[in-house]
Amino acid sequence: MAGQRNRNRIRRQRAKARLVSEVEAEAEAEGAARVPEVDGEVVTAADRVVQRKIPLSKLSQSATKEELRRRSLIGQIRGHYLDAISRLPTTELATTLARGLLIAGHCYGPLHPVHNIIVNSVWHSAAFPMRASDRIDAPVISCRTISRLVQRSLDGLVASLRHLCPGLSDDDALWHLSLSRADLRAAVASARGFRLTASELEAAFEAAAKAAGHVKPVALALFASSVLLSVERDVVSLLNNKRRLSSADILCLSTTLLPSPLPDELPDPPLEERFTAAFKLIARKRSHLTRWYTEWVEIADTALRKYARQTAEHYLLHIIYGYGALRDEFHMVRSYHINFMAWPKNPCAREAPVFFFAKALLPSVSGFCEEDITLCCTVQPSPVEVDRCHTCLAENFQIDHPDDSKNFGGGQYYHMDGIGEDLDCPIMTDVDYRCFDPVRDIGFVECLNQDFVNYMSSSPWHRRYKKQIDLAISDYCTGII
């Protein structure tokens, strides 16, 4: 049995390595040059764009290669997000920084991708703060929220690189970004042979922000191309010298990145007066989310208690970064898979939190107990799908599973051969409701209102009983999770 588990683990590790390295091997086979150092000397004076030459005999394979390259980049960017999340202070991550990170914390910008995520999140939270009464404070981030952040960041990176290098195709842009591990500066140096110049930045970052659906594209472009560059040395020094940021560090960054308040135009009249039904929908869904978040935190805390009893190692929850409810053939919840980060109770012992996976059964009574936790163990974040169980893969839950387990949910581990759809990038996720700003989110309210109108008009019963608005809202809200 142990030998079989070892063979399974080795097979999965080889599959993972092949999936991650195939892009780089393919690039080298095509004669790719070494990516120039971003902070080094100019490689060439010629303003040229390096394009890959694909023989006609290989054109039939290009679609598969592009999918593989995109998947590899998605895995790399997800890794950048997990790194950034692990560095932020626990309290601020669940409260004041939540909207800045989950709505506007994209990874493009003039710095390293992880630094861009942190800086963009802190700046947005300081520039456009939510009222405390409007927040849902919870140490929870859903799989779909991270997937959307990753996909939007990738869209922004491609748009920015193509703006700076108009001769590139989408596939060429993905190729250079893959070589640079999603670092825009290195990708530009790879494509053109020399670095970004200050005069190019604002338009390039605005193109990125618009392609990524950023809520404040013009303001972000101005910040990243001017304010950030003026304080870049101090910011990079802080981020390089301290892996784990404190509350004082976040306050220092906020003051540095936003020396004075930004003008912020608010809608008049207030949105709630114009979209009554949409605000009722949002209130109902936020109530559902609050209960769900409480349940996920309860699972993580219970799993950590059981882990402490079994190993004598005590941890405190940092953040939940993925969860999924697994259902049977009758669509009834039977178990839960969850990922979370946790700090040892002796915080000086580590500079990074530990990543965990836990599996919990549906409790027979209200509340979770240790008997409901069937597995809790440490894991390493995986950049690709080979570590996901069949059930999580089918439900599109990006969950990191332990390597030494044979299977989960009755399904074998699934190996992607570069074929298939990208990770879903939903238009709306739970975070749109959790981080809803009633004085700024005009586009979200208008979109939700139109979707609800379409829902009402598509239902004969609701068309007939138009005055039963509360019942219609209740029916509409059943699809929240």
TrEMBL record:
Occurrences of domain DUF3615 (ranges): 300-402
**Residue span, PIR2-like helical domain:** 76-189
UniProt xrefs under Pfam families: DUF3615, PIR2-like_helical
| Organism superkingdom | Eukaryota
- Give the protein name, as stated in the record: Uncharacterized protein
Q: Which organism is it from?
A: Hordeum vulgare subsp. vulgare (Domesticated barley)
